[in-house]
Every structure is written in C-alpha cells, then in structure tokens.
Amino acid sequence: MDGINTRIAACIEALGIKKTDFATKLNVSQAFISQLTKGSALPSNRTIADICREFGVSETWLRTGEGEMFVPVERDLEIAAFFGDVLRGEKPDFRRRFVAALAKLDETEWALIEKIVLEVAESAKK
After folding, report:
1. DSSP 8-state secondary structure symbol assigned to residue 2
2. Which DSSP category does 18 fall into?
3. N or C: which terminal CB in the chain sees fewer CB atoms within 10 Å?
C-alpha cells in the first residue's frame, strides 16, 4: 500500500464500518476521516494511537505498511473486548439484549443450544 491514507481506508474497509462510525469511535469528524483517506490531511500521532487502540490495528503496519494490519488477539481477550463493547453501549441494541437473554439460560438450555449449533455446523459441512 502506498501511504498511510490508503492504509486508513483499508482499515475502515476491513472493519466493515462506515467512515462516520470510524470517526465517532475516534471522537473526530467524518470530514476529517475523509480528508485522511484522500490524503489531503495527515493523522497526528494521537490519531494514529487512537486508531490502533480502538480498532486493534498494528501501529507498525499503519505507519509503514509492514506486517499484519491487525494485532493478533488471544481469543479470551477478544471475547472480553466484545463484552466490554456491548456493556458500554449507550442504549440496548440487539447484541446487549441477546447477551442478556443468554445470561438467563440454565445448564439444560445451554446444552440444548450447544446441540443445535453442532447439528447446524455438521449439516453445513455437507
């Protein structure tokens, strides 16, 4: 990739989010993100640090293009980050309602869900 502007655009695309959502997470304007992705503005060191922290982007990759785009995360940390994001939500969205419903399940219900998921996975292989 050519420059940091194309790498920022690649991050947004890889994350599958809109520039507006990307900007909101970084507490900057969508217009500024557009300027960054077009190359008409350069990110400050703080903006680079914020992108890396908020989205798990490798700072080396973002600055130089070397290595992997995202920092590898242990599965448990990834799950914890997901739940933290769900809990930080300002309003109950589907994810929060779904997690709340799962939290009410007993062992028998969990076993039933596991059985269903395994059956679906098995039939998807066919």
Report:
1. -
2. -
3. C
The closest alpha carbon to 26, from 7, 4, 53, 60, belongs to 53
Domains along the sequence of the chain with CATH: 4-64 (1.10.260.40), 75-125 (no CATH)
Residue 10: Cβ-neighbour burial (10 angstroms; 0-12, 13-18, 19+): middle
Question: What is the pLDDT, as a whole number, of residue 28?
Answer: 96
Q: Residue 43 and residue 5: Cα distance in Å, rounded? A: 9
Using DSSP, state whether 57 is helix, strand or coil.
strand
**How far is the CA of 31 from the CAs of 21, 22, 23, 95, in angstroms?**
12, 11, 9, 29
What tokens were used for 23? 């900007």
Is 0.90 surpassed by the pTM of this model?
no
Averaged in consecutive runs of 10 residues, what is the pLDDT profile of the chain (126 residues)?
90 95 95 96 95 94 94 85 83 86 93 93 86
Give CA–CA dist 18/75, Å, rounded: 25
